[in-house]
Amino acid sequence: MNLKTSGAVVALCLVGSILSTAVAGTIEGTVTYKGKPRPAKTISTDADPVCSMSHEAIKDEKFVVGEGTDGVYPMGNIFVYVKSGYAEHPYPAATGPLVIDQKGCTYVPHVSGARVGQEVEFKNSDPTMHNVHSLGKNSPAFNRGMPAGAPNAGYAFKAPEVMVKIKCDAHPWMSCYVGVLDHPFFAVTETDGKFSIAGLDDGTYVVETWQELLGTLTGSVTVKDGSGTLDIQYTRDK
Amino acid sequence: MADKKENSHEWDQRHYSAHLLNIIFALSSLIFLASMILMFWKDYDREWRTHQRSFRQVELAKTQEALAIEQERLTSASSYTTLSNRVAELEAAQAAQKSELDAMAVDRDKADKKLGVATQDLNFEKAEASAMRYRVEAAHGEHDHKAEALRAAYEKLTLSVSTKSSVVDGLQAELEALTAAMTARTAAVDEARKELGKVTLQRDLLALRLSKLDPSKMDVATRLGDTVRDLPLMDALNPRYNIRDHQIIVEGITEDLIFDRVPRVDRCTVCHLGIDRKGFEDQPNPFKTHPDLDLFLGLSSPHPLKEFGCTSCHGGRGRGTSFTSAAHMPRSPEQAAEWKEEYGWHELHHWDRPMRPAQYTQAGCFECHSGASQTTGADSLNLGLAVVERAGCYGCHEIEKYVGRSRVGPTLQHIASKVTPQWAYHWLNDPKGFRDHTWMPSFFNQTNNSDIKDRTDQEANAMVQYLMRESRAHEAAHESMPTGDAERGRVLTRSLGCQGCHMLDGETYPETLTIQSLRRQQGPGLTGIGSKTTALWVFNWLKDPRAYHPATRMPNLRLSDQEAADTAAYLVSSRKDDFAATPPPAPAAEALDAIALEFMVPGMTRAQATQALATMSLDEKQQYCGSKLIRRYGCFGCHDIPGFEDARPIGTTLNEIADKSISKLDFGLQHDLPHINYAWFEQKLANPRLFDEGMVKEPKDRLRMPNFHLEPAAINAVVTALLGFTKPDDELKKMVPRTPRRIFVEKGEALAGELNCRGCHVLRGDGGAIKDSVAYWLEHIKTNSDASEEDDSGEDDGWGEEEEEIDVAALARAYSPPNLTGEGAKVQPTWLFHFLQAPETIRPWLTLRMPSYGLSDDQLNTLTAFFSYDAEKPFPFVSQTVVDTNSAAYAAGREMFSPSAMSCARCHITGGQTPIGSSEDNWAPDLAKAHARLRGDWILTWLQNPQAIEPGTKMPMYWAPGEQSPVPHLDGDPQRQREAIRDYMFSLGNTQ
């Protein structure tokens, strides 16, 4: 008994030490776009009077960039994640749920990341009916109707999948994407294009970025003395 | 004495030498001994024993491995660690109190003993009392004066009994108290051990199994026994390795022994030891796990091992315990050679049911499932039956399953109004030259008649001329047609659903025939039509196929004149003009005479025949030969031909073909071919004329079966079906039970197959052959027409439209024909009957059109019953859902239906009103039609969990199990809410 207990303690200490040493390692970088950006399109919401009356015009979020110079723009709504190189062991579960709100007949946020098994909470802040239809292939089917005022609907992805598209059949323009991973090394960029993924040991990692229209790009980055930098640039020039 | 001596002398005077005999006896006893030893050794060394011994090693390794994995799993599981720690802790705590507990145990034992003594004492006293009571009663009866005294003694004894009894009670209570005190002390440990036991159950079971397998885990005595009992000779007693424990006596299946029937005994599992056990998938045979335990052998499968054994499906000699004596059959000559080398295998002669070679195993399914058109899991058999149906084998060969089926080919009653004699001549000569995937087989230019091409050309022409002369006038309904637009027609053929049954010009056929690709060949491939017939003929045909061919399977798509004209224009735009470019040969009197003589001579002398021929004109000769040749070749097996309406099929029956004696199959000069029925079938299908090779035969005696140019996969499938056509065994108790439900379902399945419902619909989980065509239509046709409609006002931002990727897979579902799996549970039989009779539009966004089949009442009833019975729903009457429009629930239903809550009309059409603003790929069926169409109970199930009924549906789930209802109506009670919505929906458009 004593042996077993001490074994468990040692194991715990090991996990603890891995985590404590790992916290220092961070990959940072910026995702940019070079070229003429796609203008955000206005979505017609006439289909549902509730959507068209209660909100200003909705812009689609398929391509979001910030202020840029010399034809290079920082990109928002990019899902960045470590594709390989990280240690394959169970990571501590995520704390708290991922909340995706249906607000103004769009999903907020448009792009997000979730852990396998993490609770994903769908919220309906609109005074109209939405349905949350996950088109994920690796996790069980999910299609929930949420009338105005419905309590939040919970869901948990069962397997990694980059990306899972979620859409509303009642409002065909509504869609959002969730990157599902079994580890915590991912981030989503804001319009400044910056991302930071912490908790990595020193080592070399393959990082992939995902953009809704332009697809994925991969890069390799080495974390040394607790830091590594990786900038990724999208372009449509062939 | 003297005699004796003399005798002994005589005896000594024997004619043989005792010494020699001694040697002979010694030798023969040695030989006897050796042969004894050899015999025991031979028995000990039998194949199955070797297998059982090595299987034990495999099982041992597997169990050890599983145990290690399970142990590891336990060690890493927190519940195990917690529990085992707890047990250890408690055990330690208990150990600390050992002396106390021991003392308690001593006390308890003492109390137990005391109780035992007291109980015995009491029982003796009771016996005394009983005896005394008898004596008292006896004394009373005899008026004995001692009665009173005895009575007093009895009273005294009774008193003593009650005293002793209370002593026992006291001791009993004392013992119980002591036991309880002890249990209380140990309860925690016992409870914790029990909990731990639940977690470690799997491991403990594995450990138990291991203890029976692993000699190193056994105690000395067991281990010794384990070794000794399997020694040669000793193994007669109670061996571990035996047949008895492994054989299966199959109940309800008997074997015919001429005058008696004996139960079938399958000893296959004596060697195939891992066959019904998971985990041996990676082992070589004979230990390998069966590839489909869910369908076979498993306890919960439909064919449990103990009930079905092995040979009822696989064939073979169940009692055999060696590789050869089990009647294994190789899949190929190469495998046969391999087996000879490895197992000394030879074919087991004089055994009627050798094992089916692996590629034909599914033939066994047909023995019991002969009523079904499709048997789950028997893909090859299903394909084989489908090919038999599509090729129309039953046209020439009687097959019980298909008796009464209509002919597969088009009618030739009005052929002159459809094609030219020149085209028909070339078609008959070389159908593949016109359409390389046609199901019309080739009669001419085959291996056994290409040497007499001049003659066969005359034959073909004579038959065509006969057909043209006999062709009956056909009054087409339309003598003219609107001008058709081929491009519009192209779009129509791709959007109406033609591709459920036809391959269009330019489509590629998949490399391997599958049951799904076969569905798309229900009708002819639509190529070269412009060179075959006229646009007007096609127009008339499309408008009303039955007017031309009453028995056709082509349904009516209710095309408008313009639609039919456009489609016809498109179809005839496909041409193959070089196919029938040359005229047929002129009739040659000499050749025709020779042909005619063959037919005339058996009935008259040659001179008479010649004389008769001399009086005939060339046309008459051609006519005579054409008619006789049509009979010889059996064209009427597939086509309705004037003058041959009631002709009998020409081929040999295929009923019980699998049992046909090999000596009745003519192998001709094909000596290299194994003399096995399936080898013959394979060759016959690959080249039906092969067995004429090298034979000297008159043209009339040559083999006539035409060549279907079947590909290997199709041949394999058809042979599987043929091997299933066996003599039905009346004693077969495993036959699929002939319940009314099953009969209705089988009848409906057969009709659904004939009508090719699965070309468009998924039915019972299978079908929907048109799906890829729908995806193609979405990608290449619909998007183009949508794009041209969109006004392109926005200036070019340099990004174009490429980004607007369409999710074809998701959209194809929205535009595909509805899935009919579970349709019987969904719709009302009356509605289904009327819908099949005269289809109405349910899904206006679909361009595909449910055709009118012109079904008879009998067929309509067959299909309606099929759907209901398949879904195990009552048929034919269903009660109507009564809706009280004044109730509060109804008002709640209306509210929940409205945009403020579930907003049903956001996607669903209601009373013809299409959803406002929603694109048509999001539309859902008209709810105002629900009251007449849907079963009330189905709606409730559907609302509860739409994904469970149709995975991937856009219909969302509103009531997640265990969660609060999303709307507050009717006290938030989901069931009442669903009923209220259903009731409100049923009131829509219900004019009653």
Description:
The complex is a heterodimer of chains A (238) and B (992). In chain A, the strands form five sheets. In chain A, strands 1, 4, 5, 17, 20 and 21 form a six-stranded mixed beta sheet that branches. Chain A has a five-stranded mixed beta sheet with strand order 9-15-14-11-12, with no helix packed on it. In chain A, strands 16-6-18-19 form a four-stranded antiparallel beta sheet, with no helix packed on it. In chain A, a hairpin with a 7-residue loop joins strand 11 (130-134) and strand 12. Chain A has one domain (25-235): Cupredoxins -  blue copper proteins (Immunoglobulin-like), CATH 2.60.40. Chain A has 238 residues and is mainly beta. Helix content of chain A is 11%, strand content 44%. Chain B is mainly alpha-helical and 992 residues long. Among the domains of chain B are: 77-199; 248-355, no CATH class; 415-637, Cytochrome c-like domain (Cytochrome Bc1 Complex, Chain D, domain 2, Orthogonal Bundle); 740-788 and 806-870, Cytochrome Bc1 Complex, Chain D, domain 2; 888-987, Cytochrome Bc1 Complex, Chain D, domain 2, CATH 1.10.760.10. Helices cover 49% and strands 3% of the residues of chain B. Chain B has a two-stranded antiparallel ribbon. Chain B has a two-stranded parallel ribbon with strand order 3-4. A two-stranded antiparallel ribbon of chain B has the order 5-6. Chain A binds chain B through residues 1, 4-5, 8, 36, 38-39, 46-48, 50, 62, 128-129, 131-133, 135, 141, 143-151, 153-154, 169-170, 172, 213, and chain B through 81, 84-85, 88-89, 92, 797-799, 803, 807, 810, 899-903, 906-907, 916-919, 922, 946-947, 951-958, 960, 963-964, 966-967.
The geometry of chain B reads as extended
Within the CATH hierarchy, at the fold level, what is the topology of chain A? Immunoglobulin-like
The CATH class of chain A turns out to be Mainly Beta
Please name the fourth-level CATH homologous superfamily of chain A.
Cupredoxins -  blue copper proteins
> In angstroms, what separates the terminal alpha carbons of chain B?
132 Å
Structural class by helix and strand composition of chain A = mainly beta
Biggest sheet layout of chain B = 2 strands, antiparallel
Gap between N and C termini of chain A: 66 Å
Oligomer: heterodimer
Strand order of the largest sheet of chain B: 1-2
Q: In what range is the share of β-strand residues of chain A?
A: 35-45%
Task: From the alpha carbons, calculate the radius of gyration of chain B and give it in angstroms.
Answer: 43 Å
Instruction: Indicate the overall shape of chain A.
Output: globular
**CATH homologous superfamily identity of the domain at 415-637 in chain B:** Cytochrome c-like domain
What is the level 1 CATH name of the domain at 415-637 in chain B?
Mainly Alpha
The percent of residues in helical segments of chain B reads: 40-55%
Mean pLDDT across every amino acid position of chain B: 89
Fill in the CATH topology of the domain at 415-637 in chain B: Cytochrome Bc1 Complex, Chain D, domain 2
Number of strands of chain A: 21
